[in-house]
């Protein structure tokens, strides 16, 4: 014990302990960083992320902040995932032309490579929904009947039972779903754009999402075999049509009768 006590008092003992502490701290930091990198693996290259950062600074940072931390003009994008970017930019909703109650779909401003790079950059900021794989978008494997049930329970109150869209409050609306790609429908379900709720895999499984997409594509391909759709608004538009044109015919007939000489 006396010899050990003497070694502790050695002039270099403090230096040795400091170096050992630094080595241990550095090793733990590297290990933790490796774990975090593994958890945040996105499948994108460093070049994709770098180019996406440049595109983001040039086109998105004005509203979302230089580090995507958000501002009074746009929400934070940390943790929204690649799927949110692919949907918003891939449908032309972003970048927005002007502030308003809801981002409008418009012609896409970026090509596929640039959209992928922007998605890579945002995905690198934090874990979030990823762009769906092809197998969950394969409608040949879906069940349209089951998808229709899921759609009517979870989506029809806003998007209409025929997916024709509908009005919401304060100038907002649920868009029609005809012509929307399978990928963008899936991404909308997992990211919840605008006023739409997020349907994660605990709410609606990937298989059920595929069934919903199958249902939507089936009713889109069927068209309107019963005649004019009248906006697919059901008895409201049908009743208005009958009332307007029926009453018009009655008025016209009344005028014709009263105009005849007695």
Question: Summarize this, please?
Answer:
The chain has 262 residues and is mostly helical.
> How many helices?
11
CATH topology of the largest domain: Cytochrome Bc1 Complex, Chain D, domain 2
What overall form do the CA principal axes indicate? elongated
The CATH architecture classification of the largest domain is Orthogonal Bundle
How do the SSEs run, as a string of H and E?
HHHHHHHHEEHHH
Biggest sheet strand order reads 1-2
Structural class: mainly alpha
For the record, the CATH class of the largest domain is Mainly Alpha
Helix content: 40-55%
Overall mean pLDDT stands at: 84
Describe this entry's structure for a reader.
The structure is a single chain. The protein starts with a helix and ends with a helix. It is about 55% helix and about 0% strand. The chain has helices at about 1-10, 15-40, 45-60, 60-65, 80-90, 110-125, 145-155, 155-160, 180-190, 205-220, 235-260, and strands at about 165, 175. Residues about 30-40 have low confidence and may be disordered. The longest helix is centred in the N-terminal third of the chain and has 27 residues, at about 15-40. Helix 5 runs antiparallel to helix 6 (about 110-125) and helix 7 packs across helix 10 (about 205-220). The chain is mostly helical and about 260 residues long. It is built from eleven helices and two strands. The chain has three domains: about 1-40; about 45-125, Cytochrome c-like domain (Cytochrome Bc1 Complex, Chain D, domain 2, Orthogonal Bundle), CATH 1.10.760.10; about 135-230, Cytochrome Bc1 Complex, Chain D, domain 2 (Orthogonal Bundle).
């Amino acid at each position: 014990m006396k010899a050990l006590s003497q070694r502790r008092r050695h002039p270099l003992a403090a230096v040795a302990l400091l170096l050992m502490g630094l080595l241990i701290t550095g090793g733990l930091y590297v290990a933790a960083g490796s774990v975090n990198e593994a958890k945040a693996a996105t499948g994108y290259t460093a070049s994709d992320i770098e180019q996406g950062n440049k595109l983001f600074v040039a086109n998105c940072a004005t509203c979302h902040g230089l580090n995507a931390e958000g501002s009074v003009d746009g929400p934070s994008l940390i943790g929204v995932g690649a799927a949110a970017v692919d949907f918003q930019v891939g449908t032309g909703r972003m970048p927005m032309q002007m502030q308003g109650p809801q981002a409008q779909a418009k012609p896409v401003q970026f090509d596929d490579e640039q959209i992928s790079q922007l998605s890579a950059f945002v995905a690198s900021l934090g874990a979030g929904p990823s762009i769906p794989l092809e197998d969950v978008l394969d409608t040949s494997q879906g069940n349209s009947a089951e998808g229709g049930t899921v759609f009517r329970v979870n989506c029809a109150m806003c998007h209409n039972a025929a997916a024709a869209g509908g009005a919401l409050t304060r100038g907002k609306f649920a868009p029609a779903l005809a012509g929307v790609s399978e990928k963008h429908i899936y991404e909308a379900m997992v990211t919840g754009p605008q006023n739409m709720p997020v349907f994660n895999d605990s709410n609606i499984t990937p298989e059920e999402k595929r069934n919903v997409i199958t249902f939507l594509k089936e009713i889109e391909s069927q068209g309107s075999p019963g005649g004019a759709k009248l906006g697919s608004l059901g008895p409201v538009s049908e009743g208005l049509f009958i009332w307007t044109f029926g009453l018009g015919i009655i008025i016209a007939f009344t005028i014709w009768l009263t105009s005849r000489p007695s």
